[in-house]
Hints:
With 255 residues, the protein is of the alpha/beta class.
Amino acid sequence: MSTSAAVQKETTLSPILQLENINRSFKSGSSNLHVLKDIGFSISKGTSCAIVGPSGSGKTTLLGICAGLDTPDSGEILLSGTVLSEMDEDQRADIRNKKVGFIFQNFQLLPTLTALENVMVPLELRGGGSDEIEHRAIELLTSVGLKNRLTHYPSQLSGGEQQRVAIARAFINEPSVLFADEPTGNLDAETGDQVEELLFNLNKEKQTTLVIVTHDLLLAQKCEQEIRLSRGEITEQRIGNIFTQMDSKNSISQQ
């Protein structure tokens, strides 16, 4: 994509996620550990974005705040025009159920439910006809190559299969944004490649915005946008082929 094309694409797509001056600290003994410092960026609807950085840079904390799983100490988060940072937990849970999908690094499947039942959970919590929900769950599991594993429990599935169940579960409510925390981190190279392909295919087919936390720079390069963190601060951003870098005064210089 040319620089001009990248600029045109960014300006013609409306932001689905916007963060302004996000700060987050945690208690560490008698002091506060400042995990996120004045974070601000936006992600356009239907695009893919990678959040990268070394361990301890604040990636997972940032992802949880973006998804409404955690709240910042200060700053504002807008998801589809809704101000998450002004909501209570019940309101954020409602938004997550309707607009957000989340793939956890350790899958977080319910061990006493089958693959099919795990995928059905989000829509069952919302209510509706069980036959329709089951049909939709079967379609999704079939699309991720698990048509013959519907009645298997998580303990009977490989790591790659469990991740595919988690992906199907995340997509069943047709989220506006899908957040994925190290979606290939616990997988072998071949299975990781398959999961990557699946995520990007579903992203394109459903036009679901994809936000991935990853250590894998090759995976990050496949995303249309990239945000690099270090010690809780954004050091560099990429949109298409356009790179912007934060200098020592927290201003952005274009490269």
